[in-house]
Amino acid sequence: MATIRDTPGHVALDRLDVWFQDEARFGQQNTTTRIWAKKGTRPRAVRQQQFESAYLYGAVCPATGATEAIIAPHANSEYMSQHLKLISAATAFGRHALIIMDGAGWHQQALADDFDNLTVLKLPPYSPELNPIEQVWQWLRQNVLANRCFSGYDDIVEQCSIAWNSFIENKERVSKLCSRRWVILTS
Fold it and tell me: Where is the Tc1-like transposase DDE domain (predicted)?
């Protein structure tokens, strides 16, 4: 109800861009995945014991293939506001962004008040399956960031940047992985 009330009435559905937003922590306590090995051998994967990490804030618009991301040392409302600023700037003039996100403490509705061209829609609690960007995090971990060691925070930031850029270089991949039928607003 609040989203309907907060979305400007003059915005036609064909001028509304749906974005999915979330953040994920990447760091030295990294993912291990299957690896190729010679038959009859037991491969080894190094698992770090350190705890440095970074947060990758990401947003995708499946309809256009547009993406925005920011890497930060913490997850808080200050970085969330900066991420919303990027999304607002990426939204074309005359269009409105509906940003779908979970209910994390730093996903405050008031942050969207600073922008005329976006509205926030929070997902119900405990429903990560409704946010397709969760699959982006899985893709990044399985295809680019798994089974590796990071020397420190700067290395984590650099490797997350490389991973994100690897993901977004193919707009068709972005759209295919993140599109959902229930998001199509016009026929």
Answer: 17-155
User: What are 164-168's contacts with CB under 8 Å, separation 24+?
Assistant: 164/56, 164/58, 164/67, 164/69, 164/140, 167/136, 167/139, 167/140, 168/67, 168/69
Domain span at residue 109 reads: 2-8+16-31+48-179
pLDDT for 135 beyond 50: yes
CATH number for the domain spanning 166: value is: 3.30.420.10
pLDDT at 108: 86
Question: Model pTM greater than 0.90?
Answer: no
